[in-house]
């Protein structure tokens, strides 16, 4: 009887430790990766093994930056025309993604409809 109680107690403590670890990790994730309202990376392009370029918004101004493991350098502040091109391109990309998703969804729904129709015909043939 004592060994069963000990086993039950061990399992309860194991679950308690797992829950505490999960809570701690969630808290650390929120603190580490908190979203800033004033800084946002719009687009990032890997240029080399350890270097990349990014378009960054800092306080409603757009910047082109170079990023490496040792430094982050400001290449230039983007002008109004360049910013408008970026915004338009983002909108076009979003519309393209949404359109592709709708095409995939429609194809999927048609395929499922054909499979259901085929199953109904097969069941009707077996009944006859």
TrEMBL record:
Cellular location(s): Cell membrane
Top-level lineage group: Bacteria
One GO term of the biological process aspect: bacterial-type flagellum organization
Lineage: Bacteria, Bacillati, Bacillota, Bacilli, Lactobacillales
Keywords: Cell membrane, Membrane, Transmembrane, Transmembrane helix
InterPro entries: Flagellar_biosynth_FliO
Species of provenance: Vagococcus hydrophili
Protein name (record): Flagellar biosynthesis protein FliZ
A UniProt-annotated Pfam family: FliO
Primary location: membrane
